[in-house]
Design goal:
Layout: H1 2-10, E1 14-16, E2 28-30, H2 32-50, E3 55-57, H3 66-71, H4 74-77, E4 79-84, E5 91-93, H5 94-99, H6 103-114, H7 124-134, H8 138-147, E6 164-167, E7 171-173, E8 183-185, H9 191-195, H10 198-205, E9 211-220, E10 235-245, H11 250-267, E11 275-279, E12 289-297, E13 300-309, H12 313-322, E14 328-330, E15 335-337, E16 340-347, H13 348-359, E17 360-365, E18 368-373, E19 384-388, H14 395-407, E20 412-414, H15 420-430, E21 434-438, H16 440-445, E22 447-452, E23 458-462, H17 466-477
Parallel strand pairs: 3-9, 19-20, 19-21
Antiparallel strand pairs: 1-2, 4-5, 4-6, 7-8, 9-10, 10-16, 11-12, 12-13, 13-16, 14-15, 17-18, 21-22, 22-23
Helix pairs in contact: 2-13, 6-7
The structure holds glycyl-adenosine-5'-phosphate (GAP).
Length: 480
Amino acid sequence: MDKIVSLAKRRGFVFQSSEIYGGLNGCWDYGPLGVELLNNLKQAWWRSMTLRDDIEGIDASILMHPRVWEASGHVANFTDPMVDCKQCKARYRTDVLIDDLSVKKKKEILRGLYKEDFEGQQSDEKILMEFSKRIVGDEIIAKVIRELIVCPNCGNKGTFTEARQFNLMFKTFVGPVEDTNNVVYLRPETAQGIFVNFLNVLNASRQKLPFGIAQIGKAFRNEINTKNFLFRTREFEQMEMQYFVKPGSEDTWFEYWREERLQWFLNLGMKRDMLQWHKHEKLAHYAKNAYDIEFRFPFGWGEVEGIHSRTDYDLSRHEEYSGKSMKYFDEQSKEKFTPYVIETSIGASRSFMAFLCASYDEEMVEGEMRTVLHLHPTLAPMKAAVLPLVNREGMDDIARQLTKDLQKSFRVFYDDSGAIGRRYRRQDEIGTPYSFTVDSQTLQDRTVTVRERDSMKQERLSIDAVKNYLSEHLRHETGG
Ligand code: GAP
């Protein structure tokens, strides 16, 4: 993970927010290459959702009427349990406090609670399994925190308060008066912007069930503990789609969207063994079924996307709170009903990190370490590099002209500094799939070499064929 974070900063993918002021916890800025990769990722998702008949897009505002969040349940329930240290005032989410304990400490806790010998031949993995099996439920967690854990900040034991529920929504005020009547929230998910626009989209687009509404946008959560780079941040982007279906058909559509969403990752070059399904055993009261797609991050498996069967909960709640009918009239059966919803919800920033981790590789090439991002060409920030072998004899002029031509259609990088091998390595490190080199043979027969990032194989082709080569290869790679 450290290597990926360091590469991300060094090559301009991701910077710490407000770094010159010491940074702002849980917030990150995307640099020149990062914003390209992020945009490519969002484009790939947007295209997969909207280049079909049955899904419309929207872009709703971040600030919404405060009743939206009462209806959605976020005011009452979007909370995490947390404790404060009475001694040093540090605040922790209880589950994170427990998760972050070392294996040694977990072993000690098991021994303290159950008076069994957890030393013996037990492997770390077994201890961790035993711990997560036994340390569950509010009561036991409260006891462990009260009696057995020291505050990671000041080192005192027995100084934590009882757990309290902490709402994760950021509050602010509309207008000049900061009172409770003017409270609004920064949206903690984009989904509600879709639900409240269900009728608008339905009427404007004249869609019929089943159909979906897709949206990409920022979401904000005042996470108590941010950690693991882009994994859990306070400001992030979501790509969400709500698919409205006739009640009774939700199970079929749920399976359909599970397939589609997994395939999306695979189409973008993710290996199947880097992904797994996690079925929610404990469902939210309104959910009928829920699965997460988890990615194998360097720190362990973590959710990147949720696929949820949400029944008619959200539309019914908005009907109740707004007093406006959210019902759909089915022309064929002449029935009026509230549609059921299948939601697909993926974090743009979290999946950005997953693709970065999945593509990162180090390999020995001719006795030297090569760092390479095996990014799918669709995602790669730069589609090609153009490199004159040397900066004279007109090679640089030809290379600059080629760059200009290619830049009419693609993001292409011109580089004429340093040895050619080093320049290839610099492109490998940012995942550029193709490099075109202008050399002395170019001056004679107007051919250039193309080097492919993953195989490092080189072949010659006419300079006039480069643009087609790139279009063909990028189209081929994206299955277009
Ligand atoms: N509308 C449903 C919803 O918001 P969620 O499981 O809370 O569901 C969906 O979030 C996705 O949003 C997650 O799978 C994750 O990719 C992303 N996400 C959620 N919280 C995040 C955070 N604090 N930082 C980065 N990404 C986050």
